[in-house]
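User: Please predict the structure of the protein below. I'd like the answer in structure-token form so I can feed it into my own downstream comparison script.

Assistant: Understood. Taking the following sequence of 365 residues as input:
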Amino acid sequence: MEESMEEEEGGGSGGYEAMMDDQNHNNWEASMDGYRRLLPPQPPPPTSSSSSSPREPPGVQLLAVAAAATERKGPKEGLGPPPEANGVTMMMMKSCDAAPAKAATAPTPSATININTSTSKFLMNVITIEDYKSTYWPKLDGAIDQLLTQSPGDYIPISYEQIYSCVYKCVCQQHSEQMYSDLIKKITNHLERVSKELQASPPELYIERFNLALGQYMGALQSIVPLFIYMNKFYIETKLNRDLKDDLIKLFTEHVAEKHIYSLMPLLLEAQSTPFQITPSTMANIVKGLYTLRPEWVQMAPALFSKFIPNILPPAMESELQQYAAQDQKLQRDLLQNGFARGDQSRKRAGEELAYSVHIRTNFS
């Protein structure tokens, strides 16, 4: 009987202790659940796979540590707001908040607008064939007219920079072929007019006018060729395998010189036999110009060309010295008949030298 009562007392005390343990466990779990709800959510632990999310930056980890420490040091209830963070923590929070905002910034519409604007500007700069005919070629046409008709030493009021810019733009816009064709046609028409004017000239003015036309054209080439140098380099030389200056000289040869050489040469030979009928400079310009246009024309009058161009005739022989001496004597007689006395120039130079030496001795003695 006593043993059964002891077992009942032992059983009763054990049940009471078990009941109290269960109640304490339940109260602890409830308090822990409330504490977990107050903590910030923790990120899941990183996995070993390559597709796992990247590690959090140090700033986020420090913020989590600071928040946990603040809650531990907060009020006893653990429900109040955390104390103010120090300057370092606030700065890190601002930097961490600003970084994702910058990274997530989408391109603004203004960037697209700028691209479209630049594209439209590029399309607006395209030169069509109509633009070339109505705007660019008229400028070149007027400048070529002035250069072809200018007299030596005249000032031409044109902008060489503007003309060169027009040529450059037309070449870049693939109008080289059309521009070259227009240039050749323009100069050909000019030379045909010049040829007709020479045909209408009287014999006494024929040589002078031919010299004027030749000199004017060669002078114009010195300005025209540089203005079209970009077309010459990127179209004529590369695609036609020619040179612009050679083409323009050939135009004068075909449309002017070839048509007048058989009328001009007899007049030149006649003028050579009559001293001072034309000036020596005019004769030299024409002879050298004809030789530049076509060297084969030397065979028409070798003696005439040899007076202005070296190495035209073969080397002189000893047997020909008397002939050369006779030609010099004839030239001296012609000079005397036209008022040039022998020794006048030498005596004049000697008198000037004597007067200069007397002046020097008087001033420094």
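That's the full token string. Residues 125-306 form a domain with the 5 helical Cullin repeat like fold (CATH 1.20.1310.10).
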